[in-house]
Design brief:
Elements lengths: L15 H15 L7 H12 L4 E4 L6 H11 L4 E5 L6 H5 E6 L4 E6 L6 E5 L6 H13 L1 E4 L2 E4 L5 E6 L12 H4 L4 E3 L6 H10 L15 H12 L5 H16 L3 E3 L3 H17 L7 H6 L1 H5 L4 E2 L1 H5 L4 H11 L11 H5 L1
Parallel strand pairs: 1-8, 1-9, 2-5, 5-8
Antiparallel strand pairs: 3-4, 6-7, 10-11
Length: about 350
Protein backbone atom coordinates (compact mmCIF):
# COMPACT_ATOMS: atom_id res chain seq x y z
CA UNK A 1 0.00 0.00 0.00
CA UNK A 2 1.46 3.35 -1.01
CA UNK A 3 1.73 6.12 1.54
CA UNK A 4 1.67 9.88 1.05
CA UNK A 5 3.68 11.57 3.79
CA UNK A 6 4.10 15.33 4.30
CA UNK A 7 7.84 16.04 4.17
CA UNK A 8 9.46 19.19 5.49
CA UNK A 9 11.71 21.05 3.07
CA UNK A 10 14.34 21.52 5.75
CA UNK A 11 14.57 17.99 7.19
CA UNK A 12 15.58 14.76 5.46
CA UNK A 13 13.02 12.12 4.53
CA UNK A 14 12.34 9.65 7.32
CA UNK A 15 12.44 5.89 6.96
CA UNK A 16 11.54 3.14 9.47
CA UNK A 17 15.12 2.80 10.72
CA UNK A 18 15.60 6.53 11.32
CA UNK A 19 12.23 6.79 13.09
CA UNK A 20 13.29 4.00 15.42
CA UNK A 21 16.70 5.59 15.98
CA UNK A 22 15.21 8.97 16.91
CA UNK A 23 12.65 7.36 19.20
CA UNK A 24 15.34 5.39 21.01
CA UNK A 25 17.54 8.49 21.26
CA UNK A 26 14.69 10.36 22.96
CA UNK A 27 14.02 7.47 25.35
CA UNK A 28 17.72 7.11 26.22
CA UNK A 29 18.04 10.83 26.85
CA UNK A 30 15.01 10.93 29.19
CA UNK A 31 16.34 7.90 31.05
CA UNK A 32 19.38 9.91 32.09
CA UNK A 33 16.92 11.50 34.56
CA UNK A 34 14.06 8.98 34.87
CA UNK A 35 15.79 5.82 36.08
CA UNK A 36 14.33 2.31 35.85
CA UNK A 37 11.07 3.38 34.19
CA UNK A 38 11.73 2.67 30.52
CA UNK A 39 8.21 1.42 29.80
CA UNK A 40 6.66 4.61 31.22
CA UNK A 41 9.12 6.76 29.27
CA UNK A 42 8.31 4.94 26.03
CA UNK A 43 4.58 5.28 26.62
CA UNK A 44 4.88 9.04 27.25
CA UNK A 45 6.88 9.39 24.01
CA UNK A 46 4.21 7.32 22.26
CA UNK A 47 1.57 9.76 23.52
CA UNK A 48 3.56 12.74 22.19
CA UNK A 49 3.92 11.23 18.72
CA UNK A 50 0.27 10.10 18.70
CA UNK A 51 -0.71 13.67 19.71
CA UNK A 52 -2.43 12.45 22.86
CA UNK A 53 -2.46 13.39 26.53
CA UNK A 54 -1.40 11.47 29.63
CA UNK A 55 -3.03 11.14 33.06
CA UNK A 56 -0.53 10.14 35.77
CA UNK A 57 -2.16 8.77 38.90
CA UNK A 58 0.56 8.39 41.47
CA UNK A 59 1.92 9.39 44.85
CA UNK A 60 3.98 12.57 45.38
CA UNK A 61 7.72 12.33 44.79
CA UNK A 62 7.65 9.57 42.16
CA UNK A 63 9.06 11.74 39.37
CA UNK A 64 5.97 13.06 37.56
CA UNK A 65 7.31 16.61 37.24
CA UNK A 66 10.78 15.39 36.25
CA UNK A 67 9.16 13.21 33.58
CA UNK A 68 7.50 16.24 32.01
CA UNK A 69 10.66 18.38 32.29
CA UNK A 70 12.91 15.70 30.81
CA UNK A 71 10.51 15.31 27.89
CA UNK A 72 10.40 19.05 27.21
CA UNK A 73 14.19 19.43 27.41
CA UNK A 74 14.75 16.38 25.18
CA UNK A 75 12.77 17.92 22.31
CA UNK A 76 13.70 21.56 22.93
CA UNK A 77 10.20 22.93 23.47
CA UNK A 78 8.75 25.25 26.12
CA UNK A 79 7.05 23.78 29.17
CA UNK A 80 4.74 25.14 31.86
CA UNK A 81 3.28 23.93 35.12
CA UNK A 82 -0.12 24.62 36.69
CA UNK A 83 -0.70 23.74 40.34
CA UNK A 84 -4.43 23.13 40.68
CA UNK A 85 -6.28 24.44 43.73
CA UNK A 86 -10.00 25.02 44.36
CA UNK A 87 -9.59 28.78 43.81
CA UNK A 88 -7.92 28.39 40.40
CA UNK A 89 -9.98 30.20 37.75
CA UNK A 90 -10.38 29.13 34.10
CA UNK A 91 -8.72 32.39 32.98
CA UNK A 92 -5.69 31.52 35.13
CA UNK A 93 -5.12 28.59 32.78
CA UNK A 94 -6.34 29.79 29.40
CA UNK A 95 -5.36 33.46 29.63
CA UNK A 96 -7.56 36.52 29.42
CA UNK A 97 -8.22 39.72 27.53
CA UNK A 98 -6.65 42.82 29.07
CA UNK A 99 -6.39 46.51 28.15
CA UNK A 100 -3.13 47.59 26.55
CA UNK A 101 -2.61 50.92 28.32
CA UNK A 102 -0.47 52.66 25.62
CA UNK A 103 -3.02 51.97 22.85
CA UNK A 104 -6.23 51.57 24.81
CA UNK A 105 -7.02 48.37 22.88
CA UNK A 106 -8.01 45.00 24.27
CA UNK A 107 -5.34 42.36 23.73
CA UNK A 108 -5.22 38.68 24.60
CA UNK A 109 -2.67 37.61 27.20
CA UNK A 110 -2.00 33.87 26.80
CA UNK A 111 -2.06 31.68 29.88
CA UNK A 112 0.14 28.68 30.69
CA UNK A 113 -1.90 26.50 28.29
CA UNK A 114 0.02 28.09 25.43
CA UNK A 115 3.05 25.84 25.66
CA UNK A 116 4.17 22.51 24.23
CA UNK A 117 4.41 20.36 27.37
CA UNK A 118 1.93 21.34 30.09
CA UNK A 119 2.07 19.70 33.51
CA UNK A 120 -1.25 20.07 35.35
CA UNK A 121 -0.52 19.03 38.92
CA UNK A 122 -3.37 17.52 40.97
CA UNK A 123 -5.95 18.20 38.27
CA UNK A 124 -8.73 16.81 40.46
CA UNK A 125 -8.23 19.66 42.96
CA UNK A 126 -9.47 22.19 40.40
CA UNK A 127 -13.19 22.94 40.29
CA UNK A 128 -15.30 21.43 37.46
CA UNK A 129 -15.48 24.87 35.83
CA UNK A 130 -11.69 25.08 35.60
CA UNK A 131 -11.42 21.42 34.54
CA UNK A 132 -13.86 22.11 31.70
CA UNK A 133 -11.59 24.90 30.44
CA UNK A 134 -9.07 22.18 29.55
CA UNK A 135 -11.54 20.19 27.40
CA UNK A 136 -11.30 22.38 24.30
CA UNK A 137 -7.52 22.51 24.53
CA UNK A 138 -7.28 18.73 24.85
CA UNK A 139 -9.65 17.92 21.99
CA UNK A 140 -9.51 20.88 19.58
CA UNK A 141 -6.00 22.10 20.47
CA UNK A 142 -7.29 25.64 20.66
CA UNK A 143 -8.62 28.06 23.27
CA UNK A 144 -11.64 30.34 22.81
CA UNK A 145 -11.70 33.53 24.89
CA UNK A 146 -14.30 36.27 24.39
CA UNK A 147 -15.46 34.62 21.17
CA UNK A 148 -11.99 34.51 19.60
CA UNK A 149 -10.32 31.14 19.00
CA UNK A 150 -6.57 30.96 19.55
CA UNK A 151 -4.68 27.87 18.26
CA UNK A 152 -2.24 26.10 20.57
CA UNK A 153 1.33 25.37 19.45
CA UNK A 154 2.37 22.02 18.03
CA UNK A 155 3.36 19.71 19.52
CA UNK A 156 1.03 20.07 22.50
CA UNK A 157 0.99 17.47 25.29
CA UNK A 158 -0.82 17.76 28.60
CA UNK A 159 0.44 15.60 31.46
CA UNK A 160 -2.09 15.75 34.29
CA UNK A 161 -1.49 14.22 37.71
CA UNK A 162 -3.76 13.18 40.54
CA UNK A 163 -3.07 11.69 43.94
CA UNK A 164 -5.01 8.43 44.52
CA UNK A 165 -4.72 8.71 48.32
CA UNK A 166 -5.71 12.22 49.42
CA UNK A 167 -9.27 12.58 48.10
CA UNK A 168 -10.60 15.20 50.55
CA UNK A 169 -11.44 18.44 48.77
CA UNK A 170 -11.10 16.97 45.29
CA UNK A 171 -13.42 17.03 42.28
CA UNK A 172 -13.27 13.72 40.37
CA UNK A 173 -12.80 14.12 36.64
CA UNK A 174 -15.98 13.40 34.66
CA UNK A 175 -15.98 10.49 32.21
CA UNK A 176 -16.10 12.88 29.24
CA UNK A 177 -12.80 14.44 30.28
CA UNK A 178 -11.16 11.15 31.25
CA UNK A 179 -11.98 9.83 27.79
CA UNK A 180 -9.87 12.59 26.24
CA UNK A 181 -6.66 11.30 27.79
CA UNK A 182 -4.86 8.87 25.53
CA UNK A 183 -3.18 7.00 28.41
CA UNK A 184 -3.53 6.61 32.15
CA UNK A 185 -0.17 5.66 33.67
CA UNK A 186 1.51 5.18 37.01
CA UNK A 187 5.22 5.91 37.43
CA UNK A 188 5.56 4.03 40.71
CA UNK A 189 8.52 3.83 43.06
CA UNK A 190 11.86 2.72 41.55
CA UNK A 191 13.42 -0.54 42.60
CA UNK A 192 16.53 -0.62 44.81
CA UNK A 193 19.07 -0.46 41.97
CA UNK A 194 17.18 2.24 40.08
CA UNK A 195 16.91 4.39 43.20
CA UNK A 196 20.67 4.04 43.70
CA UNK A 197 21.14 5.31 40.13
CA UNK A 198 18.92 8.28 40.91
CA UNK A 199 21.09 9.19 43.90
CA UNK A 200 24.33 8.84 41.93
CA UNK A 201 22.98 10.94 39.05
CA UNK A 202 21.98 13.75 41.44
CA UNK A 203 24.89 13.57 43.88
CA UNK A 204 26.43 16.90 42.78
CA UNK A 205 23.54 18.68 41.08
CA UNK A 206 20.15 17.86 39.60
CA UNK A 207 20.61 15.58 36.57
CA UNK A 208 17.90 17.51 34.74
CA UNK A 209 20.15 20.58 34.65
CA UNK A 210 22.58 18.87 32.26
CA UNK A 211 19.94 17.38 29.95
CA UNK A 212 20.23 18.60 26.36
CA UNK A 213 17.81 18.33 23.44
CA UNK A 214 18.35 15.47 20.98
CA UNK A 215 15.68 16.55 18.45
CA UNK A 216 14.00 19.84 17.64
CA UNK A 217 10.34 20.73 17.15
CA UNK A 218 10.51 20.17 13.40
CA UNK A 219 11.85 16.66 13.94
CA UNK A 220 9.02 15.83 16.34
CA UNK A 221 6.36 17.07 13.91
CA UNK A 222 7.94 14.98 11.17
CA UNK A 223 7.83 11.91 13.43
CA UNK A 224 4.15 12.64 14.12
CA UNK A 225 3.36 12.79 10.41
CA UNK A 226 5.34 9.61 9.70
CA UNK A 227 3.44 7.67 12.38
CA UNK A 228 0.13 8.75 10.84
CA UNK A 229 1.13 6.94 7.65
CA UNK A 230 1.80 3.56 9.29
CA UNK A 231 -0.49 0.96 7.72
CA UNK A 232 -3.31 -0.57 9.76
CA UNK A 233 -4.62 -3.61 7.89
CA UNK A 234 -8.30 -4.55 7.94
CA UNK A 235 -7.71 -7.63 10.17
CA UNK A 236 -5.87 -5.51 12.76
CA UNK A 237 -8.52 -2.80 12.54
CA UNK A 238 -11.24 -5.39 13.19
CA UNK A 239 -9.17 -6.74 16.09
CA UNK A 240 -9.18 -3.26 17.66
CA UNK A 241 -12.94 -3.03 17.15
CA UNK A 242 -13.52 -6.51 18.63
CA UNK A 243 -11.54 -5.59 21.75
CA UNK A 244 -13.61 -2.45 22.30
CA UNK A 245 -16.87 -4.23 21.51
CA UNK A 246 -16.01 -6.92 24.06
CA UNK A 247 -15.81 -4.33 26.84
CA UNK A 248 -19.35 -3.15 26.07
CA UNK A 249 -20.88 -6.56 26.71
CA UNK A 250 -18.70 -7.72 29.62
CA UNK A 251 -20.93 -8.38 32.68
CA UNK A 252 -18.33 -6.86 35.04
CA UNK A 253 -18.36 -3.48 33.30
CA UNK A 254 -20.92 -0.72 33.70
CA UNK A 255 -19.30 1.40 30.98
CA UNK A 256 -17.15 -0.02 28.20
CA UNK A 257 -14.67 1.52 25.79
CA UNK A 258 -15.96 4.27 23.50
CA UNK A 259 -15.25 4.80 19.82
CA UNK A 260 -12.67 7.34 20.93
CA UNK A 261 -10.91 4.43 22.67
CA UNK A 262 -10.80 2.56 19.33
CA UNK A 263 -9.18 5.59 17.71
CA UNK A 264 -6.75 5.90 20.63
CA UNK A 265 -5.71 2.24 20.25
CA UNK A 266 -5.10 2.71 16.54
CA UNK A 267 -3.11 5.93 16.94
CA UNK A 268 -0.96 4.58 19.77
CA UNK A 269 -0.37 1.22 18.03
CA UNK A 270 0.88 3.06 14.93
CA UNK A 271 3.54 4.84 16.98
CA UNK A 272 4.52 1.58 18.71
CA UNK A 273 4.96 -0.10 15.31
CA UNK A 274 7.02 2.82 13.99
CA UNK A 275 9.20 2.80 17.13
CA UNK A 276 10.04 -0.83 16.30
CA UNK A 277 11.15 0.16 12.80
CA UNK A 278 8.03 -1.14 11.03
CA UNK A 279 5.43 0.37 8.71
CA UNK A 280 2.62 -2.05 9.58
CA UNK A 281 0.70 -2.48 12.83
CA UNK A 282 0.60 -5.98 14.35
CA UNK A 283 -1.70 -7.27 17.11
CA UNK A 284 1.21 -7.20 19.58
CA UNK A 285 1.41 -3.42 19.08
CA UNK A 286 -2.27 -3.11 20.01
CA UNK A 287 -1.91 -5.36 23.06
CA UNK A 288 1.11 -3.31 24.19
CA UNK A 289 -1.05 -0.21 24.72
CA UNK A 290 -4.29 -1.93 25.72
CA UNK A 291 -3.96 -1.36 29.49
CA UNK A 292 -3.02 2.36 29.42
CA UNK A 293 -5.76 3.09 26.86
CA UNK A 294 -8.49 1.19 28.73
CA UNK A 295 -7.41 1.91 32.34
CA UNK A 296 -9.42 5.13 32.74
CA UNK A 297 -12.24 4.38 30.30
CA UNK A 298 -13.78 1.26 31.86
CA UNK A 299 -16.06 1.45 34.92
CA UNK A 300 -16.83 -1.62 36.99
CA UNK A 301 -20.35 -2.56 38.11
CA UNK A 302 -21.07 -2.38 41.86
CA UNK A 303 -21.23 -6.20 41.98
CA UNK A 304 -17.80 -6.47 40.34
CA UNK A 305 -16.36 -4.06 42.88
CA UNK A 306 -17.76 -6.17 45.71
CA UNK A 307 -16.05 -9.20 44.16
CA UNK A 308 -12.73 -7.29 44.27
CA UNK A 309 -12.55 -7.21 40.48
CA UNK A 310 -10.20 -4.67 38.96
CA UNK A 311 -10.15 -3.02 35.56
CA UNK A 312 -6.74 -4.62 34.96
CA UNK A 313 -8.13 -8.11 35.51
CA UNK A 314 -11.06 -7.43 33.18
CA UNK A 315 -8.73 -6.15 30.45
CA UNK A 316 -6.56 -9.26 30.81
CA UNK A 317 -9.62 -11.48 30.51
CA UNK A 318 -10.86 -9.66 27.42
CA UNK A 319 -7.40 -9.71 25.80
CA UNK A 320 -7.31 -13.48 26.31
CA UNK A 321 -10.82 -14.00 25.00
CA UNK A 322 -10.58 -11.88 21.83
CA UNK A 323 -8.39 -13.77 19.38
CA UNK A 324 -5.91 -11.78 17.26
CA UNK A 325 -5.80 -12.29 13.47
CA UNK A 326 -3.71 -15.27 12.41
CA UNK A 327 -0.29 -14.82 10.83
CA UNK A 328 0.49 -11.52 12.59
CA UNK A 329 2.27 -10.68 15.85
CA UNK A 330 4.60 -12.89 17.85
CA UNK A 331 6.04 -15.68 15.76
CA UNK A 332 4.82 -14.07 12.53
CA UNK A 333 6.09 -11.28 10.26
CA UNK A 334 6.92 -9.09 13.28
CA UNK A 335 9.85 -11.29 14.26
CA UNK A 336 11.00 -11.58 10.68
CA UNK A 337 11.27 -7.79 10.37
CA UNK A 338 12.96 -7.21 13.72
Amino acid sequence: MSKIRPISATTPTLDPASFRARFEALADNMERVIKGKREVVRLVLTAVLAEGHVLLEDLPGTGKTMLARSLAQSIDVPTARVQCTPDLLPSDVTGSTIIDMPTGNFVFRPGPLFTSVLLVDEVNRATPKTQSALLEAMQERSVTVDGVTHPLPRPFLMIATQNPIELAGTFPLPEAQLDRFLFKLSVGYPDRNAEAEVLRANIADEAIADLRAVVDTGDVLQLVEWARGVTVSDPVMMYIIDLCQATRSDPSLLIGASTRASLALMRAARVVAASQGREDVYPDDVRGVLHPVFAHRLILTPDAQLRDETVGKVVERIAGRVKPPLGLGAGGPENASA
